[in-house]
Amino acid sequence: MSNQSINELSHELIGAAIEVHRELGPGLLESAYEGAYAHELTLRSIPHVRQKLMPIVYKGVVIETGYRIDILACDRWFSN
């Protein structure tokens, strides 16, 4: 994925999050925002998966249930 398309995807994902916040406002549980965000991504035709398991490696052993990503969009995981 090129930098331009990563920037475009980031713009779409942030826009979807802002739309959810505008509609729902503050104060709800995380699960409510996650469900609404997933729906917004569907409306925008952005492929995504909720609650994706991401294994971790601990002392050379793969721990399958090590981490759960709330939403994985376009099969990309972004981190610093």
Please outline what is shown here.
The chain is 45% helix and 30% strand.
Question: How many β-strands, per DSSP?
Answer: 2
Which structural class fits the helix and strand makeup?
alpha+beta
Give the overall pLDDT as a whole number: 89
| Integer count of domains | 1
Order of helices and strands: HHEE
Shape: globular
Uncertain residue ranges: none
Describe the strand arrangement of the main beta sheet, using strand numbers: 1-2
Tell me about the biggest sheet?
Answer: 2 strands, antiparallel
Report the portion of residues in β strands: 25-35%
Question: What oligomerization state is this entry in?
Answer: single chain
Radius of gyration: 15 Å
Classify the helix fraction into a percent range: 40-55%
N-to-C span: 17 Å
Question: What is the fold's blueprint, element by element?
Answer:
Elements: H1 3-24, H2 30-43, E1 48-58, E2 61-73
Antiparallel strand pairs: 1-2
Describe it for me?
The chain is of the alpha+beta class and 80 residues long. It has one domain. 45% of the residues lie in helices and 30% in strands. The chain contains 2 helices and 2 strands. The chain has helices at residues 3-24, 30-43, and strands at 48-58, 61-73. A two-stranded antiparallel sheet has the order 1-2. It is globular, with a radius of gyration of 15 Å.
Features:
single chain, alpha+beta, two-stranded antiparallel sheet, 30% strand, globular
